[in-house]
Amino acid sequence: xxxxxxxxxxxxxxxxxxxxxxxxxxxxxxxxxxxxxxxxxxxxxxxxxxxxxxxxxxxxxxxxxxxxxxxxxxxxxxxxxxxxxxxxxxxxxxxxxxxxxxxxxxxxxxxxxxxxxxxxxxxxxxxxxxxxxxxxxxxxxxxxxxxxxxxxxxxxxxxxxxxxxxxxxxxxxxxxxxxxxxxxxxxxxxxxxxxxxxxxxxxxxxxxxxxxxxxxxxxxxxxxxxxxxxxxxxxxxxxxxxxxxxxxxxxxxxxxxxxxxxx
Length: 263
Description:
Layout: E1 3-14, E2 17-28, E3 32-36, H1 43-51, E4 58-63, E5 66-67, E6 76-80, H2 91-103, H3 112-128, H4 144-156, E7 162-166, H5 174-191, E8 194-198, H6 202-208, E9 211-217, E10 230-237, H7 246-253
Parallel strand pairs: 3-8, 3-9, 6-7, 7-8
Antiparallel strand pairs: 1-2, 1-4, 4-5, 9-10
Helix pairs in contact: 2-3, 2-4, 3-4
């Protein structure tokens, strides 16, 4: 697989505070990358760099070999932990809104055949996430799992190449999380997506991913805690039988969590 995304010696600094330092890696097209690490290790900053919400202080982020500008684009979709849908719009209108913005950024309304095509596309995407019977339902009338399905449909309707997931299942009950795991795996395969998923659940990262990146600080100065930034401390290609290394489990969870709990 070719490298879709590349970070070359990327640093992110806010004044004297270093968030990320010396991040260098390539992400292959079609991969499913799980990103783990302790709080404050720069995982969300890493996601914002890929999304285009943030630019590196030093270094480059390249998409298809071309430096990315600090702006979001339709080739990247994102789903957050808290359901990022519009509460005043039905499920159908939530998904149609993305199509309308892309095709008519100044009018934000479509008419005639364009509107019918947008509706058909939105209905198809809602069916793909199992919401074909909830077209006219508002988010407040939905369960958490349904709202997250809606957010995924909203992100995928413009056919992004990269789907970014920021703790997407953290607020869901265990049984619903399993359903969402099956859904996102199916959509990844069917749509040929490249997925980057931040999660605090290391078992989830190893279950879903083809690769796991662990972010942490290699050096800590107790007298100047912001002097050094985080970087990739583990970069692990996976098959479905891979278990997390004991050192990684201990770094993230402490020494008392048995690896059998992560299978």
